[in-house]
Amino acid sequence: MLISEGDTVVDKYFAVEQFATHFDNPSSQLVWLGSNPPIKERTTAYNMQLPELRISEGSHMGGLFSPDNPEYGIHGKNRLCNNGQGPELEARCLAGDEVWYSSYGYMEDGKIHARLTYNPYFDESIERMEQVLESK
Question: How far apart, in whole angstroms, are the C-alpha atoms of residue 60 and residue 7?
């Protein structure tokens, strides 16, 4: 299971509870995109405060997309500027101003945020998934 700590759309704590109580295969993994996972057992956490990539926090939309994805990756065609920050900042995002990336609704003074639509830890996340699938 892959969950973003910053997500406000998915009920992440319900999902984690389901993982902890119903994913009884000892090889199951929780990939937590954030620094503070609510459980430690069978969990890999990745820091999502990545200023070098202008990422403030993760989003549920990014978990499954590679940074190289032509639609949603780093240089993807689709920039999701409707991020709950108001019409002025959304317009600046759409106009091509420099943006930071986050989940829906994240705001920080002095920054315009678009939705993070890729997983900066995509390769590592896929490795985790492969480990689970290859386990016996």
Answer: 6
Q: Are 115 and 100 in contact (CB under 8 A)?
A: no
- Length in residues, the chain: 136
User: To 5 degrees, how large is the angle CA 135–CA 124–CA 34?
Assistant: 110
75 φ/ψ sector (left φ>0, alpha ψ -120 to 50, else beta) = alpha
Tracing tokens 């954030």 back to the chain, one arrives at 34
Q: Is residue 131 within a helix (H) or strand (E), and if so which, with residue range?
A: helix 122-134
Query: Beta strand 2-4 with 30-33: parallel, antiparallel or unpaired?
Result: parallel
pLDDT, averaged per 10 consecutive residues of the chain (136 residues), comes to 91 95 93 94 96 96 95 95 95 96 95 97 96 88
The domain ranges of the chain are: 2-134
What is the pLDDT, as a whole number, of residue 136? 72
